[in-house]
Amino acid sequence: MSPRGRWQTQAPLAPLTTWRVGGPAEVLFEPADRADLQAVLRALPADTPLTWLGLGSNVLIRDGGIRGVVIRLANTLDAIAVDRAGARLVAEAGAHCARVAKVARDAGLAALGFLAGIPGSIGGALAMNAGAWGGETWPEVEAAEVIYRDGRTEWLPADAMRYAYREVQMPAGVAGFLAARFRVREDVNAVHATATRDSLARRKASQPVGRPSAGSTFRNPPGDHAARLIEACGLKGLTIGGASVSTQHSNFILTAPGARAADVEALMAEIRQRVAAQTGVSLHPEVRVLGEAA
User: Fold this and answer.
1) Measured between alpha carbons, how far is residue 225 from residues 39, 143, 217, 250 in Å?
2) Looking at residue 2, what is its pLDDT?
3) What are the pLDDT digits (tens) for 8-31?
4) What CATH number has the domain bearing residue 14?
5) Which of 216, 244, 246, 250 is catalytic?
6) Do 21 and 95 have their domain in common?
7) Annotated catalytic residue, options 34, 62, 105, 166
8) Which label site among 28, 42, 154, 223 has the fewest CB atoms less than 10 Å from its CB?
9) Distance CA 172, CA 50 (A)
10) Per-residue three-class SS string for 92-145
11) How confident is the model at residue 45 (pLDDT cuts 50, 70, 90)?
């Protein structure tokens, strides 16, 4: 096996995540292109653990790192194409969600403005049915391109996936996502473009944009908001080690220089315990915790 892309052992992953914490990957593979990815998957032993990483915005990588191969598609498979005649937009898994929203907006197309509020890649959005501002990924997907462990690729209709709020169950044998084909429509009078700009302005005013975080830490419970519950329990500013609850938006956990993933995980556990004790509501993480403790 001779990958043409970047193949690195004991590769630091913290710089590749938005929390800037966590241990190394046993192997980090950043494919040169689609054919390179297919060739490597065909060559890997079937029992090699695989972990997919995009922009690292919705994951907590534990301090012990990740065994097996971490495949990072950000800045590799990131093409975006618009088919106005067919009212479709195709985006590869490594494309930044915000860039997809901008391409759609600039093409005068509606339906994908919510992607501007997701600080991750299309692959990550597909894997967790990411959403923002009342919109979710999978209801707008017509079909998704998947890749299997043997390197085969296939376009599957959206109804081949089972999805719910921040959850997606892929068909058996699917290793990951390569692209999505979205349904779009004309943005009459630029109504959706205006709404997207307004939503971005509200996000910048209400969230700690630009500081190390993973976005929303917990899912919103039915009929309520995690941020409201956390704030109502007096947890804004709560700190464990180098991790703290944002004083601007209480569903964001921020990390300081020198923070460890264990600090974030301990703070998440403390928030869950206190909210459950005071409100009876069990908060569930929106972020995915990966790897092993140190």
Assistant:
1) 44, 31, 12, 10
2) 84
3) 999 999 999 999 999 999 999 999
4) 3.30.43.10
5) 216
6) no
7) 166
8) 223
9) 15
10) ECCCEHHHHHHHHHHCCEECCHHHHHCCCEHHHHHHHCCEECCEECHHHEEEEE
11) very high
Q: Examine the domain organization and report whether 38 and 84 are in the same domain.
A: no
User: Is residue 120 within 8 Å of residue 58, measured between CB atoms?
Assistant: yes
Boundaries of domain holding 169: 80-204
CATH code, domain with 172: 3.30.465.10
User: Is residue 166 annotated as a catalytic residue, yes or no?
Assistant: yes
> Model confidence over 198-216: pLDDT tens digits?
767 666 766 777 789 998 9
The answer to whether residue 1 sits within a structural domain is no
Q: Which of 259, 271, 268, 270 is nearest to 289 (CA)?
A: 268
Catalytic residue (one of 26, 92, 145, 286): 286
So what's the pLDDT on residue 216? 92
Q: Name the residue with higher pLDDT: 195 or 171.
A: 171
Q: How many domains does the chain have?
A: 3
SS3 (DSSP) at 242: coil
